[in-house]
Amino acid sequence: MQFSNSNTVSDIVLLGFQNLQSYRISFFLLLLIIYCVTVCANLLIILVVSSSRSLHSPMYFFLTQLSFSDILLSTTIVPNMLPIVLYEGNSVSFIGCLMQFYFFLASEMLECLLLTVMSYDRYQAICHPLHYTSVMTPTFCVKAVVLCWVMMIVAILPFSITMSYLWFCGPNVIDHFFCDLDPILELSCSDTFLMKIEDMILMIPFVLCPFTVIIMSYIYIIITILKIPSVTGRQKTFSTCSSHLVVVSLFYGSLIFIYLFPNTENIKKIFSIFYTVITPLLNPIIYSLNNRDIKLEFKKLKSKLLSALLMK
User: Fold this and answer.
1) Is residue 268 within 8 Å of residue 262, measured between CB atoms?
2) How far is CA 25 from CA 20, 28, 29, 61, 89, in A?
3) pLDDT tens profile 34-84
4) Are 181 and 22 in contact (CB under 8 A)?
5) From 201's CA, which of 26, 57, 68, 87 has a CA 20 to 30 Å away?
6) Residues 279, 285, 290: CA angle, nearest 5 degrees
7) CB 43 within 8 A of CB 283
8) Using omega within 30 degrees of 0 as the cis cutoff, is the peptide bond preceding 183 cis?
9) Closest CA relative to residue 118, chosen from 260, 214, 190
10) Burial of 129 (0-12, 13-18, 19+ CB in 10 A)
């Protein structure tokens, strides 16, 4: 990717949170703990699912992909956020700022698509249980994940090419804690109309369509659950998709609030923290706390590791 030689902006100053003052050390430590727990929790889910044959099913396969996406999102945002919080602002290179935005965009796109595939998996499991194994085959699951990655890469490529033709001549200050699209475009001296059109076009296959598919899936799921005669049967069936429903609500809820308050910086920062920092932390916790299989396999894995250590 080649950037215009006429660009005069070489560094970007991220202001972050200017009103933390005496709380910045506490906030820094909190973010550091959250990041470490997020990475460890998601890696633990990947390890538990990968090491257990009983968890080699479509739902858990997609869960490992979601955990990888959460690690990517958290690693893209939090390490760069830490010095911004500690020093009440920090500078990054212009290219580094753009790269952070591309990785952030990639992880968000991937998460949207994965949550959609997971909702389809729950739809098949609850609404068409007799055909589940014939539809959700290992080959289909792998193809679905590969398609998610291909769609994400194909979408980012033209987006990054268009961005490379923009002229950035100053200012170089962003009132945010990471390099998001709107703050970057505000720094450009070029006409950003095409970039905004591309952004709106990308909303269709990566936000609107996935959200519509998820909503439709859960409409059919709820209808199917309501047809179950026993209360115990309804509760047991609903429990199989409750974790995914909570994760979807957290992810899309924060995105919707950001678009409802696009010009309110403080509110935007708060909800940006929620879906870039908190959501990757909550996802593995939600799936672990509400899943007996994962908790059981985790205990087995822990016993195996302890036995191996004692043997030594």
Assistant:
1) yes
2) 9, 5, 6, 38, 13
3) 999 999 999 999 999 998 888 889 999 999 999 999 999 999 999 999 999
4) no
5) 68
6) 125
7) no
8) no
9) 214
10) exposed
**94-127 vs 231-260: helix crossing angle, rounded to 10:** 160
- Whose tokens are 């990717």? That residue is 1
Q: What integer is the mean pLDDT of 125-151? A: 95
Provide φ and ψ at 108, rounded to 5°: -70, -45
Under a CB-based contact definition with an 8 Å cutoff, are residues 60 and 91 in contact? no
The model's pTM: 0.90
CA distances for 46 relative to 21, 62, 135, angstroms: 38, 10, 24
Q: What are phi and psi of 80, to 5 degrees?
A: -75, -25
Q: Are 19 and 180 in contact (CB under 8 A)?
A: no
**20 Cβ neighbours under 8 A, 6+ residues apart:** 27, 85, 88
DSSP output for 199-242: HHHHHIIIIIHHHHHHHHHHHHHHHHHHT-SSHHHHHHHHHHHH
3-class DSSP state of 91:
strand
Q: Which two tokens stand for residue 254?
A: 């924060």
CA dihedral 138, 143, 148, 154 (to 10 degrees): 160
Whether the CB-CB separation of 284 and 277 falls below 8 Å is answered with no
